[in-house]
Every structure is written in structure tokens, then in C-alpha cells.
Write a structure and sequence with these properties.
169 residues, two-stranded antiparallel sheet, ABATE, Zinc finger CGNR domain-containing protein, Znf_CGNR, binds zinc ion, 4 strands, ABATE_dom_sf, single chain
Length: 169
């Protein structure tokens, strides 16, 4: 598992849509809980940065490259700081406290793209707004979850096939 992969997925999957309008999990107590689970404070400014990171990454994953602009702005004050230790130099992310957690999300996204290219994708159910990182060996995972979208879409495909083939059975 890539560092902060769970944080990345929690943030990407914080606006689920079950057929209707996306819900907002990066808000209120739910947002506070999510941020604190990953070492954040959950205050309003931090949640706002996380929402900017999420919306930008969702756009990029779906092919809308204009989103790099909002992410660049979000990261404008983030730098890497060198910590020299007896065994080498460690580079640590340094960003204003509001931006720190969102910057970790972007770092994790970047690491996933580097180490698992093409494996971060949107669920193939177009009515779903969840994302997955495909760790399967063939790299053919399509659904956020087999239990929900996978079965739902398979049932739909089966129903369509049955309709096309008429009532032969
Ligand atoms: Zn899904």
C-alpha cells in the first residue's frame, strides 16, 4: 500500500452519489472525523482545502486538465524541507497548517500515478461518484465495490441481455 493511499481514497470518495446529487462528507462532524482520522484538525479552513483538492483530483481523473490550475494555487505555499540526519537527508512536506492535509492528499495521488500508473480510476458505474485504486494483478477492476456497483451493473447487463434474447427459455 502506498503512503497515505487511504487518505487519498477517503477524500476522493467523500462526495458519493447514489443516483442523485453528490453528498458532501467533507463538512460538519463527518468532515471533522475524516480529517482527524488522518492526523488533521478538521477545522473549516482545512476542510475547505480538502474539498478543493478533491474536486480538482476528481476532474483530473475524469480527464479535465483545467483542474491543475486550482490545485497549483492550493499548493502555492507548499515546499519540501530538508532534514539532515546521520544517515541521509529526509525531505518533508512543509505547508501552511490549513493546506498540510490537502497537500498530503496530492502527494499520495502523485505517488499512486508514479507507482501504479493507470490504476486510479473512477467507478465504471456512471451514477456512482466513487474512485478506486486497482491492486489486482491483471488491472481490470472496474467498480468501487463488487458488492454494490459490481453486482448492480452485472444485474443490469444481464437484464439487458435477457431482453435482447427475448423469452427463449
Ligand atoms: Zn461505484
Amino acid at each position: 500500500m502506498i503512503e497515505d493511499e487511504e487518505l487519498l481514497l477517503d477524500v476522493l470518495n467523500s462526495a458519493p452519489r447514489d443516483g442523485g446529487e453528490p453528498m458532501e462528507y467533507l463538512h460538519g462532524q463527518r468532515g471533522v472525523d475524516l480529517a482527524r482520522a488522518h492526523g488533521g484538525s478538521g477545522d473549516d479552513a482545512e476542510l475547505r482545502c480538502l474539498r478543493i483538492a478533491r474536486d480538482g483530483l476528481q476532474d483530473l481523473i475524469r480527464g479535465n486538465e483545467v483542474a491543475v490550475e486550482s490545485l497549483q494555487e492550493l499548493m502555492s505555499e507548499a515546499t519540501m524541507r530538508a532534514d539532515v540526519t546521520p544517515s541521509g537527508v529526509e525531505w518533508k512536506l512543509s505547508a501552511p497548517s490549513d493546506v498540510q492535509l490537502a497537500a498530503r492528499v496530492l502527494q499520495a495521488w502523485s505517488r499512486v500515478n508514479e507507482h501504479l500508473p493507470g490504476r486510479l480510476r473512477a467507478c465504471a458505474n456512471t451514477e456512482c461518484n466513487l474512485y478506486l485504486i486497482d491492486h489486482t494483478r491483471p488491472g481490470t477492476a472496474k467498480w468501487c465495490s463488487m458488492a454494490t456497483c459490481g453486482n448492480r451493473m452485472k444485474a443490469r447487463a444481464h437484464a439487458a441481455r435477457t431482453r435482447r434474447s427475448g423469452s427463449r427459455n
